[in-house]
Write a structure and sequence with these properties.
Strand content: 15-25%
Helix content: 25-40%
Strand order of the largest sheet: 1-25-2-3-6-7-8-9-15-16-17
Oligomer: single chain
Structural class: alpha+beta
Largest sheet: 11 strands, mixed
Length: 756
């Protein structure tokens, strides 16, 4: 029998050479099936054992570890919340130790963020992640990071090199996180370029999406500019406030005839990645210090997007929160200055019809797909634009011009420089060179001054994200608006500042800046609470962050009651109207009225662009559509009686692990009861919420505090995986020890890294 020259013969074929082959084959298969089952059980047992070991493994946080690459010993003191307080003799060792701490606590999160940035998730998740990788690879974050790495200043390059060495030292000495064991792979070494890639993908997530531009373009072309402004108002003029919290309300416009939202085919709908921030100068505080508050709103996962940290060397001392993968402190304070940031919600993405694209500038990207063949995709890339699939045609591509794509300067430089800034004036000079997606920076220093400035790349594009440019516009350049012409508020000790992704400029400002800002309801409520009293303390700012009153939802509830009573029908509705009529507008956990109103708003007013149009109908601005509104309300009232649940249940959410959709839900975090909604200061909606809360009493750093929803550790076996949730739900804001005495008093574990 010719079996082959390069393969071992199948033993079943050898055993089948018997006077009674069928019996021999049956016996062989029986024996092999048993052996195969035993092998499967052994493999499953080994897999279960290694996963179980990973579930119980935790990073070493006390004692002494020898680490190659250090110049001098470094101490990492963990407080009761497991927050690292790093004390180093030089800058290199400081960033090395920060990388070591992040690599110890969040190694899988680091690798997942890096893979997402580079479009390499399919390598571990298979074909289900391929579409996401293909979309992500269009931006060429790898190429942007490579260019930014070459252009980094020597000190900044040294910082991310040291940070990378620290991450890799932790990966080599600490237990392998359970997620790697479950997915059966080990992470590649962390590279300095990877930190830049994480910072770039953060800017990409904060930028105006080209998918939103496509959706707005469909409305623009279908209905024209006049209807577009009606269906996508820049803001809700009734609630507008300026950056200093002053009312900026204007008369609402009547919707032009023929601008019916129900006929709009494409409607952009995505969670707005926003934040709240406000500040008061020393003349407005009880203790004579400036005050500043910040709570960014992001997708809520476990581990969370923020990592709390305190870092000190002879050259600097900063504390607050950073994004895993990035060195330094992104949001927080140093010894003399505090800063807060919100997304400016400004248009940065210009989209062009592609026209004819020649063969030049096309590149091929190869995707490694787990348990499947490699896949290739072609992308068109010039020095200024990259191609994406057009949402309006499955066979066409469009070209996107995103300023960071062509930018060699890194936003990381701004983070590292702010950590060392001495005062507001210095910080303003630093943020003038910020090259990320536009942000609202609020600053406060120990002199008691507070200031505000928009910073980032805002192209002066006449489209402002409302429509797709024709191909001929590719010849045009849209230079960024100069820093000095972006919205600002000069330093002052008697100022209050408010920022919540809203339109913060008055009508005389020369630039539009956005297709549509976030509704101003949170900013309005912040200003309202600031105007209640002449002076504040850190405790008052912390209580403001827990406020659950929604001005717009309260208005809607009252208008619905008024409208329903003015248009009575035969169906019984008195009970529902009574509940809504008594509601105080607060989305408190025990409120049934909050659950009723939220269901009403979603069912009757809908999402953008229906929301703005229906809101005007309810307000009586557009009486022509009252009959349709009445019909919709009747339909809602017919099932409103069945709503008996409180907001605790209706608005509640589970903090999910990224692997939960793969049947690994045991990695999930805690359940958060409903408290607040998308228009309250205490923002919370399914999957999306306040991701941290921070209040700083500027100069008295051991007051105020910071909180995150789950825990500092990304290890499920750690007691610090979800230990901070109880305090988060209770609204407790615990100080972040900063001074030497406070750190020593709160020390729970100390790890010393020593050079080899």
């Amino acid at each position: 029998m010719n079996v082959g020259f390069f393969e071992r013969p199948d033993p079943r074929l050898i055993r089948s050479a018997d006077p009674t082959p069928p019996a021999a084959i049956a016996a062989a298969l029986k024996r092999d099936a048993l052996a195969f089952a035993v092998c499967l059980l052994a493999i499953a047992g080994a897999y279960a054992a290694t996963v179980d070991a990973g579930l119980h493994a935790t990073a070493v946080t006390r004692g002494t570890i020898v680490a190659r690459g250090l110049y001098a010993p470094v101490s990492i003191v963990r407080d009761g919340r497991d927050i690292p307080h790093i004390r180093a003799a030089n800058q290199h060792d400081l960033y090395f130790a920060e990388g070591y701490a992040q690599g110890s606590d969040r190694l899988f999160q680091l690798d997942l963020s890096r893979r997402y940035a580079y479009g390499r998730l399919a390598e571990i998740f298979g074909t289900k992640a391929l579409a996401l990788d293909e979309a992500q690879r269009a931006v060429d974050i790898d190429g942007i990071a490579e260019r930014q790495l070459r252009a980094l200043a020597p000190d900044d390059r040294a910082a991310i090199v040291a940070f990378s060495e620290g991450v890799n030292a932790a990966a080599a000495s600490q237990p392998l996180p359970v997620e790697f064991r479950m997915l059966l792979y080990r992470p590649a070494p962390w590279r300095p370029k990877d930190s830049l890639a994480v910072s770039i993908v953060v800017s990409l997530e904060l930028a105006d999406s080209w998918h939103d531009v496509f959706a707005r373009d469909a409305v623009w072309r279908q209905r024209g500019p006049r209807c577009f402004d009606s269906l996508f108002p820049l803001s809700d003029a009734r609630y507008d406030v300026t950056i200093d919290g002053a009312r900026n309300a204007q008369a609402a416009r009547v919707r032009p005839n023929g601008c019916d939202a129900s006929e709009v085919a494409m409607r952009p709908r995505r969670d707005a990645i926003g934040s709240n921030a406000w500040a008061a100068g020393s003349a407005r505080s009880v203790d004579g210090h400036a005050l500043i508050a910040n709570d960014p709103h992001l997708i809520l996962t476990i581990p969370g997007i923020w990592y709390l940290i305190d870092i000190e060397s002879p050259q600097m001392h900063a504390a607050g929160a950073t994004i895993p993968g990035m060195p330094g402190v992104v949001l927080g304070h140093n010894a003399r200055l505090a800063w807060a940031v919100t997304n400016a919600q400004m248009a940065t993405t210009s989209v062009f019809a592609a026209g004819h694209l020649g063969r030049r500038f096309w590149v091929t990207e190869r995707f490694h797909v787990r348990l499947a063949r490699d896949v290739s995709a072609s992308y068109y890339r010039t020095s200024r634009e990259f191609s994406v699939p057009s949402d309006s045609s499955s066979s066409a591509v469009a070209l996107v011009r995103w300023p960071i794509y062509a930018e060699k300067r890194s936003a990381m430089a701004t983070v590292l420089a702010l950590d060392r800034a001495r005062d507001v004036a210095t910080a303003l000079r630093i943020v003038a060179n910020y090259r990320g997606s536009p942000q609202n920076f609020i600053l406060a220093d120990r002199s008691g001054r507070v200031a505000y400035h928009v910073a980032g790349l805002v192209p002066d594009d006449p489209a402002w994200g409302r429509y797709v440019h024709p191909a001929r516009d590719l010849r045009a350049s849209f230079p960024p608006i100069p820093f000095a012409q972006l919205p600002r508020k000069d330093p002052a000790r008697d100022a209050i500042l408010v920022s919540a992704n809203n339109k913060a400029y008055a009508s005389a400002y020369p630039y539009r800046l956005s297709a549509q800002f976030e509704p101003p309801y949170r900013a309005y409520r912040i200003a309202e609470l600031l105007h209640v009293r002449p002076r504040y303390d850190a405790g008052y700012f912390a209580r403001m962050q827990l406020d659950t009153l929604s001005p717009i939802d309260l208005e809607i509830a009252r208008d619905v009651v008024r409208f329903a009573r003015a248009h009575p029908q035969e169906e019984p509705r008195a009970d529902v109207l009574a509940v809504l009529g008594r509601w105080d507008g607060r989305f408190e956990p025990d409120s049934r009225a909050a659950a009723l109103e939220h269901m009403l708003r979603g069912s009757v007013l809908g999402d953008a662009p229906e929301f703005s149009a229906r809101l005007n109908e309810l307000r009586g601005i557009d009486g022509a559509a009252a009959q349709a509104l009445e019909s919709d309300l009747d339909g809602w009232f017919s099932f409103a009686f069945e709503q008996r649940r409180a907001w605790r249940e209706v608005g509640g959410m589970r903090i999910e692990h990224p692997l939960a959709p793969m049947n690994f839900a045991f990695l999930n975090g805690a359940w958060l009861p409903g408290a607040g909604d998308e228009y309250t200061i205490h923002l919370q909606e399914p999957g999306f919420a306040q991701s941290l809360r921070a209040v700083w009493d500027v100069g008295d750093w051991d007051r105020g505090g910071i909180a995150i929803p789950s825990g500092e550790s990304g290890e499920p076996g750690s007691s610090h995986y979800t230990d901070l949730t109880r305090a988060w739900v209770a609204g407790e804001l615990q100080p972040l020890p900063f001074g030497s005495a406070a750190v020593a008093k709160n020390a729970a574990a100390t790890l010393v890294l020593r050079p080899r």
